[in-house]
Amino acid sequence: MKTLGNIHLFAELKRSETGATYRGIDTLSQRLVLVKTFAANGGAPEAASRFEQEAKIYAGIAHPNVVQLIDYGIADGVRYLTLEFVEGQNLRSMLAHAPQEGKLPVEIALAIFLEILAGVAEIHRRKFVHRDLKPENILIGHKGSVKLCDFDLAASSEKRIADTGLTGSPGYLAPETILGEPVTPAADIFALGILLYEMIAGVRPFQAASAGGEMNAIVRVAPLSVATINPHAPALLDELFQRLLAKKPEARCKNVEEIQVWLAQKFNLGSTETRRQRLQQYLTAPESYQSPAFSALVNAEAVSLPPQKAGRRLRVAAVAGFIALLASLAYWSSNWTTADALSEKREEPQTQTAAIDSFAQNIAIAPTSREDENPIVRASTVAASTPIEAAGDSAALETSSPPHAVFIHSNPWAYIFIDADSVGLTPLPEPVALSAGAHTLLFKNPKFPPVRLPLEISTATPDTLAFSLWEHVAQLELHINPWAEIFVNGKQHALPPGEKKLILPPGRCELKFTHPQLGEKAETIFLQPGETRQLQINMF
């Protein structure tokens, strides 16, 4: 039996390159504990920093829905965390053994969800973002306790950290995380929506055959109504899912408290103790558990969530509807009035530009969808500002050139935006129809800075366009002795363990390297597109 300080380690639960997780017993208190270890000389300074950060987060949060830190220190050259041991299972195991194909009774799912919300609310109150909310990191005790764990990916919500790769678990990432944009507490809100959906539906809302397919769906596809998958789910939950799973962070519930208030207004789920007892009853015998009449749990005088910001496609539809209405009125009026009388009374609607953000919440359409909903396709159309002629007039309608269909590829893969409109993941499976003239392409890959390129479409444009992102970025290979935190133009960059290259935009780079004991060093360099440069930094 291994010993670490006053802890006897008797069961290894998990092992990685830099450490392991054990079940142990504290010889002083005689209670079971969970011990996470990290090799102090493991040669992975970023991982060491994350391990220390995790300890600080645990130490700063004392909440019944968060696993508690018992001890943190170094023994025999090994860093360790001693944590509260929860006798039970994680939510993933609970879902796997649920009698109804991975679905939980709605009142049980909501009981668990309310406890998760309480823990996340405390994490956010302490100015942290969890960044890895998933069933494996939610522990369910035999007696009905629900606790959050694993803060190794958590980050301060007050710091803008530019990650050099995806941080989190693919099935639970928010769209902005996939696109490499700054992560805020709204990313946790999105993950909460996936968790609740999975508990009730038995599947994730954006599940696909591959991780890449699932991430593409997260960015572009609207989830099915949960009631279509689980007939026992009340349709009113769709209102909540629309706000939790909105593509734009600002369209989601603004904080966890807003979700808690909505649930309290919509459902009568009882006190914390009542919910805990109901959960304990289910855990004891899931097969024989009898759900209460759900009608008794729904509050008939519920209040809706605050209205969300209108999505792009909703606004486009409204404008299109208005234009259609004017056209109908013009046709009808031509039989009763003169063209002059009509033109005096008519007001011209404003046109909707193609630069509106494509992530219309909860609605995602393939890039070759209907022309009236896809501003990228500019076939022959009548401008909204064109006067509507009365019957009998012979004025010809102005038409634009036929669109040019092109396939777009990139190396490496990227999400592509054309004129600020989302098109999809490269390589595009279908061509995109673009009008003749100037366009702007934007490529987003989480490991790269955004790459923005001009594109001129003409009859000479080839049918397939291939772009190399490597030609438009610079690579900086860092050799730091012994290690340091890295800041580029004021933003912190965290290199994954074993990686030494930063992918940066060309131009002036002000570099700063900090070490808690060795101080700080600064460098200013100028990088060229396509350049790879090595830089030696000695902190001693």
Q: What does this protein structure show overall?
A:
The chain has a 6-stranded antiparallel sheet with strand order 1-2-3-4-6-5, with helices on one face. It has a 5-stranded mixed sheet with strand order 12-22-21-24-25, with no helix packed on it. It is an alpha+beta fold and 540 residues long. The protein is built from 12 helices and 26 strands. A hairpin with a 2-residue loop joins strand 21 and strand 22 (491-494).
What are the main properties of this structure?
single chain; 540 residues; alpha+beta; Phosphorylase Kinase, domain 1; 5 domains; six-stranded antiparallel β-sheet; 26 strands; 26% helix
Based on the structure given, which CATH architecture of the largest domain is correct?
A: Orthogonal Bundle
**Stretches with pLDDT under 50, minimum 5 residues:** 309-399
Strand order of the largest sheet: 1-2-3-4-6-5
Main beta sheet: 6 strands, antiparallel
**What percent of residues are in strands?**
25-35%
Question: What is the β-strand count?
Answer: 26
Shape: flat
Instruction: Give the count of structural domains.
Output: 5
Roughly how much helix do the residues carry, as a percent range?
25-40%
CATH superfamily of the largest domain: Transferase(Phosphotransferase) domain 1
**Helix/strand/pairing category:** alpha+beta
- End-to-end separation: 40 Å
Query: Rounded to an integer, what's the Rg over CA atoms?
Result: 28 Å
CATH topology of the largest domain: Transferase(Phosphotransferase), domain 1
Q: So how many helices?
A: 12
- Top-tier CATH class of the largest domain: Mainly Alpha
Name the average pLDDT: 80
